[in-house]
Amino acid sequence: MFYFAIQSGLVPGDTFRQKFEFLAQWGYDGIEVSGVDLLARAGELRQATAESPVKVSSACGGYEGWLADPNPRARILAIAQIKEMLAAGAELGTAGLVAPAAYGIGVRNVLPPFRSAYTLEEERARLVDSLQQVAESAGQTGGTLLLEPLNRYEDRVLNTLAEAVSVIEEVGSPTVCLMPDFFHMNVEEADIPASLRRHAQYIGHVHLADSNRQLPGHGHTDFASGFAALQEAGYQGWLAIESRVTGDPMAVLPQALTFLRLKAARSP
């Protein structure tokens, strides 16, 4: 069974209580918050959850620095903040904290003087080291790191599900899982359903956006085949919308959920 969530920044409302009320009216199962919210607004989230059928599905970002950051101080800061956020997420019963290797630091196959001073192997080694530190902490406090591969235009360290899985296998901890994003897969995966089937055992969470980063239903992504692959592989978990919103959120956000549930129902 799938559970559909959406990122909190896309939902109208000045408080989580207001956002939860809208999501409950529209039929969403959950909300994905920022990692900062897990720490600074935990009480508000617990109260809103107690009053609503909507749950906190997960958290995304909100920390400083990156797990594969070439700046040692920035990487140490990211590791420390992620450890704290994972523990807070575990207390709220979330699926975990979404984190890529890095974002916007560099891309592959560029020419000097823009080429990174580090090799991909060196950057991958930094990522593995960071994840091992995070995993050791999560093993004590709870929480799951949801590793997200980004497309080649946003990150150079991890672009495909296979690359992320190779890192997860090296870390070797159940506290580090795979987080596929349909938008990034549209760029990097030759066959989205096949990639999902192949790596399903590692998936802990899924992000949804159409091919143009708009809400599902506003591009050309074949969600039905991707959902079918997840269902065939036995995935039963959260799928959270992370997209741009064009139009009145009060109208288009319920429409997006209707679209997704229809595609899930049509999956074999």
- Number of domains in the coordinates? 1
**Sheet bearing the most strands, described?**
8 strands, parallel
Radius of gyration, Cα only, in angstroms? Answer: 18 Å
CATH topology: TIM Barrel
Low-confidence stretches: 110-115
**End-to-end Cα distance:** 13 Å
Helix fraction bin: 40-55%
Explain the overall architecture:
The chain has 268 residues and is of the alpha/beta class. The protein has one domain: TIM Barrel. Helix content is 46%, strand content 13%. It is globular and about 45 Å long. About 2% of the residues have low confidence.
Summary tags:
8 strands, TIM Barrel, alpha/beta, globular, 268 residues, eight-stranded parallel sheet
Summarize the structure.
By secondary structure, the protein is an alpha/beta fold. 46% of the residues lie in helices and 13% in strands. Helix 5 packs across helix 6 (161-171).
How is the secondary structure organized here?
Elements: E1 3-7, H1 16-26, E2 30-34, H2 35-40, H3 42-50, E3 55-60, H4 72-92, E4 97-100, H5 120-141, E5 145-148, H6 161-171, E6 176-178, H7 182-188, H8 192-198, E7 206-208, H9 223-232, E8 238-241, H10 249-266
Parallel strand pairs: 1-2, 1-8, 2-3, 3-4, 4-5, 5-6, 7-8
Helix pairs in contact: 4-5, 5-6, 8-9, 9-10
